[in-house]
Write a structure and sequence with these properties.
Layout lengths: L10 E4 L2 E5 L6 E6 L4 E4 L5 H14 L7 E3 L5 H4 L9 E5 L2 H5 L4 H9 L4 H10 L5 E3 L2 E5 L4 E6 L9 E5 L5 E3 L21 H12 L4 E3 L8 H15 L3
Parallel strand pairs: 4-5, 5-6, 6-7, 11-12
Antiparallel strand pairs: 1-2, 2-3, 3-4, 8-9, 9-10, 10-11
Helix pairs in contact: 4-5, 6-7
Length: 240
Amino acid sequence: MDVHWEEHGWEELAPGVGRRRLPRWDATVGVVAGEDGVLLFDTGSSVREGAELHAQVRSLLGGRRVTHVALSHLHFDHVLGTAAFPGAAVYGPSGMAELLAGGGEELYGDAVREGADPAESAAAVQLLEPPARVVAGELTLDLGGRRVLLANAGPGHTGHDLAMLAPGYPGVVFCGDLVEESGEPQAGPDAVPSDWPAALDRLLALGGSDALYVPGHGAVVDAVFVRAQRDALAARFGVS
């Protein structure tokens, strides 16, 4: 079937690999389709947005459902749509489950402070469960005829940052907010600035010089951009 990704609001990056920039907060979600499984990287800012994403993916892939979800980090605009994917195997970096164990009050507060709907955010936080699959180092998933590599690349933007490599020609690295293109990388109270440049070194080692790098916010970039952002962060935070 000849699928035109842009007709569904998505950008095709490689065969079976795409991404979408979501409205309002410009957060990116990614999708990788194999013969047996479909993986979504991040889920949007609310259950409603997650449900819209799931409907889009099903239209894009001939009715197939998302079977795997990978969460890059615990910020509301990347995780609060997760409940819209019932039955999917959910993966997250080590430490994410412990952050959620307190009930998600900080996650809810961040969402509301950024202008998210309080009722939607409260419902999404209540429904958000800790990832059942924890990635402490690297983990390869077989989606059927296609493998993806999940890598615990942080700390950096937060204390717990997950990246994903979809190998191919080109390879595609989904970076979460370890890389941002549409503005200066945001270092909130949960950032670990001293380790952030090293996290970008890990991303570059993961994808290499010819890969496409998908930031958490903004346009797709190359290794030159990631290396430059790594050096800018090192200078900004006074680390090597």
